[in-house]
């Protein structure tokens, strides 16, 4: 069994080599509670009265996340990155619609973004516009400025994979976000 186990990449052997996934940013000590039998071995059909601790944990987490983000409610449902992307984009579209800006439907996506990003944006009802990256893998600012100006009236958001699928942490991500916000996007 150990021979088979060693054929798989794990945090025991190396950093998990998924270019843009956050899994590699979780230290082993943060993941330890996920291995506690009393925490992970509850039966999925356990009666609610036997899962009060879980309910309390999720209620506290929901409260904390709402307080941090300023949202009225959050959802624990998006179970994958692509589902989370879609949920976030739908939240942006709903926010813009509530502000009377439902015409904003353009989503700028750097070419270094994860491949699911354009699909998620399209499924959310957005028009996808690619933004070039430079030879270092960072967003090409002149191309971004051109896209921001071209789509200023209809810009909904910029969708960034961070770090990019090339493993690049955008040095000026704060500046990029400010530029998008100044152009009316999220």
Description:
With 186 residues, the protein is mainly alpha-helical. The protein folds into 3 domains: 1-41, no CATH class; 48-76; 81-182, 3-Layer(aba) Sandwich (Aspartate Aminotransferase, domain 2), CATH 3.40.640. Helices cover 41% and strands 8% of the residues. The chain contains 8 helices and 3 strands. The protein has helices at 2-6, 28-31, 37-40, 52-69, 81-98, 116-123, 141-150, 173-182, and strands spanning 106-110, 127-131, 155-158. The chain has a 3-stranded parallel beta sheet with strand order 2-1-3, sandwiched between helices. Helix 6 links the parallel strand 1 (106-110) and strand 2 (127-131). Helix 5 runs parallel beside helix 6. It is globular and about 55 Å long. It starts with a helix and ends with a helix. The mean pLDDT is 87. One of its GO terms (cellular component) is glycine cleavage complex. InterPro entries: GDC_P (IPR020581), PyrdxlP-dep_Trfase (IPR015424), PyrdxlP-dep_Trfase_major (IPR015421). It comes from Cherax quadricarinatus.
